[in-house]
Amino acid sequence: MMLLNLKTFNILYALKLLHPVCVFPNPQGGHTGHLLIMHGHRTDTQRNQTCNWLLTSKTNNRILYHAYDIDVICPDGVSIHDGPTEAAQQKVNNACRDPTNSVFSQSIDTSSGTNLLLKFMSDGGTSSGKGFSLFVISAPSSDCTENTKILAATKKEKVLTSPMFPDKYQKSKTCNWMIMPESKGSLVKLDFKFVDIDYDSSKKTCHDKVEINYGNTTKDVCGSDITKPVKTFTSEAGSNMTLTFITDSIQEENGFVMVYMEVDGMMEPSFMQKYFMIIIIVVVIVAVIIIAVVIVAVVCCCKRKKKSSKNDDVYNPEEVKLSETPTD
């Protein structure tokens, strides 16, 4: 059995596992990864395998997980137990598909404790799929107050989650936070590692949302697609980050996990800064074009004058008038 220690928020790096060999190569994706990815095709030397991985939260928090893109051909299968042993309740029971069916996904779920046992089994047959992907994340739940709570951003990453995480957040809630850099002149950077917030895709409307305000910028975060890149925001110079989590009275989802930290200034320019930079560039380009046109016009004019002057100096016998001398 292989033990995987899960960090507070980035509990797993992006790991690639050859199907169904039970060895993890070096982590890929760096510090921003939080996916366990298994893929590849079985060969004759990789049959009749049983792989077990124990996922444990080092911070004693429960684990949220999502098995998706499951392309495992029955009777091979993927199972997840809600605990450290196979005696624990099976949350996912031998997930697999018929060769005629499509790749599928499981619903988002959570552990009851701090451990999950992931098990993959393959038989001696010849059929196989591309494997499966498993998203896992663990973080402590954050307090929710309507009065704005001040949070200090430092050089070390800190975590902020929706209330009740990893359980679903409550209806009709409003939570307010203000994140301030610890050092003068520094910026605040936010990275959303997980987002599952009620969203109407047909109307493209956020029913619930995290509203982010910094400087003259307002952004809304909602929706659910853990396979997309992490959403990142960086404050403008001299401004704090204000976050408001707003939920309506209808639908509940699993919320969000976000990490924040202080970063040095001179980061990516704000929208207004980009706007003025574009204006300046356009003005410079137009000025260069005008100067170039003026220079070309002056040169052409000089050439014409020079050519005209040469033509005036050419001897033309027809224009010479001879005076007759009178004879006696």
TrEMBL record:
CDD domains: CUB. Residues 308-328 are annotated as: Disordered. SMART domains: CUB. Residues 309-322 have a biased composition (Basic and acidic residues). The chain crosses the membrane at residues 275-301. PROSITE patterns: CUB. Residues 1-23 form the signal peptide. Keywords: Disulfide bond, Membrane, Repeat, Signal, Transmembrane, Transmembrane helix. Residues 144-263 form the CUB domain. This is CUB domain-containing protein.
